[in-house]
Amino acid sequence: MVDSQRPLSRDYEEQGYFVIRNYFNAAEISTLRAIILKFHQLWKHDNADFYEQEAFNSSLITGSHYLGGDDRVKLFNFISSKKIMNVVESVIPANPAFMNTQLFFNPVNPQLKDFWHRDCQYDHDVDVQKKVIHDTQVLHLRVPLFDELGMELVPGTHKRWDNDEEFAVRQEEQGRLSSESLSTGKTIKLAAGDLLVFSADMIHRGLYGMDRLALDILVFDPSANFVDYVDDDCLPDNAMLDKIDDPRLFINTIHLKATA
Which of 12, 31, 61, 64 is geometrically suited to a Cys-Cys bond with 101, CB 3.0 to 4.6 A? Predict the structure, then answer.
């Protein structure tokens, strides 16, 4: 729980995350849930085998493949709402840029276990990971659409490298598994209406169970080179920009792509 007297930026700077309880009201969550469930049902139909065997998340929710223009505008307006932007700019005050959206759900395959990771491990070897955690800034803003078990985070690992136990578990070395418990892990239970903000590169894992369905909004610091990760179809076109109350988050990305 965030202390209202303590700046959010300080919590993020020290711990790599913060939670704001009951940040969104029931109407906001209901409207968002209806759009996301529409996407999810269509995505599951198109990706049935993958969903049954391997999937625990999807991405590109703001794209044109599954949602119509009106729903996309509603989603863009939620992502760039005053509530979201106030939080984003508390951590990235200068020209934050939209990267992507992801949807996290329970895997159908019971053999899939929740696993510890840093997002950067999927793009970089260990030596580069050690550098990346100090150089880059990618925020996950998690909006649970139903009450869920939440996440486990290792506080402070947005700024420090793994200890021996963390590395062995995360990398599955010395007979360890990435689904094992970590003595340094902290469980953050989440309810619909909460907002969890955390560093993409800290050690973390989602916890499977209950009615898990959580929208993650990914935002990055424009000084980092992440524009290649942005799918053009997931950005609003000019007509949509005119319908977004505060389109700065998307305009910043569009400008970065134009000058890349």
Answer: 61
Q: Which one-letter DSSP state was computed for residue 200?
A: T
Listing DSSP states for 125-160 in one string gives -HHHHHHHHHH--EEEEEEESS-EEEEEE-TTTTTS
Tens-binned pLDDT, residue by residue, of the chain (260 aa): 444 446 888 999 999 999 999 999 999 999 999 999 999 999 999 999 999 999 999 999 999 999 999 999 999 999 999 999 999 999 999 999 999 999 999 999 999 999 999 999 998 999 999 998 988 789 999 999 999 999 999 999 999 999 999 999 999 999 999 999 999 999 999 999 999 999 999 999 999 999 999 999 999 999 888 999 999 999 999 999 999 999 999 999 999 999 98
Rounded to an integer, what is the distance from CA 142 to the centroid of its chain?
Answer: 5
Concatenating the DSSP letter of every residue in 168-198 gives HHHTT-TT--TTS--TT-EEEEE-TT-EEEE
Domains of the chain are: 15-259 (2.60.120.620)
C-beta of residue 57 within 8 angstroms of C-beta of residue 105: yes
